[in-house]
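::Amino acid chain::
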Amino acid sequence: MRQQILSCVLKSNGTINISFALVNFNTSISPNTGSRPEKPIGYRLMCRFWTYDVFYHPAIIQGKYEYLMRMDDDSYFSDRIKKDPFLYMDSRRLDYMYRSTYKESAYPLYSILKPILKRKYVHITCIYNNFFMIRLKWYYESPRVQNFVNELIKDNLILREYIGDGCIHGAMLHVDRRHVRVEHVRNIPYGHNYHVMPTGYQQWKFQEVNDFHEVIHKSCEQLTVLKGIQGKVAHIKMS
């Protein structure tokens, strides 16, 4: 992410306003016995953050923003984007936009989803939400989304049991499927660490490239990304 910021500043010879907001990841809750021990409480708090906490953080509430976009610090745009994604969302009147999906067990979700959906069987497509964009008004004002999220939060189910935030986002879209305007975009060249998603590709592909991390230390001098479906290391000078 710092590479993206530097590229914006150095290429335009301008300035951008950046603020850093503190996040409270302290809790007295412990995971239930046998609940995915490889997913520690810190990771579960991160999942809760992108499900609930971020939307009610003072920085978001006080900013009165219309949209929120997530970009992890090991995420990047691997090439030029033809159209500003915020303008694209606005022109399409979208509530939610994402780049890819993934598969993961979301069994603890079903105890909440089955009564809400009034179904005996439920299938959820998990959103690869290391990059996503959302219209905040939809999140705050959809009764179905609010009811679902509050069920996750009220007794700390989201911490006691492991539930991936990508699966939760998929569930939010599912419970409000008759009203939400959502799009799985393919025209954004995006990468997350070794996961590459070039323009036109629907799903991500894992490409472990040793050279990638070997040149990251030069990130103050050049933007380093994995380009194309083969994950070729590319350097973009920023000065």
About this structure: The chain has one domain: 2-237. The domain at 2-237 is CATH 3.90.550.10 (Spore Coat Polysaccharide Biosynthesis Protein SpsA; Chain A).
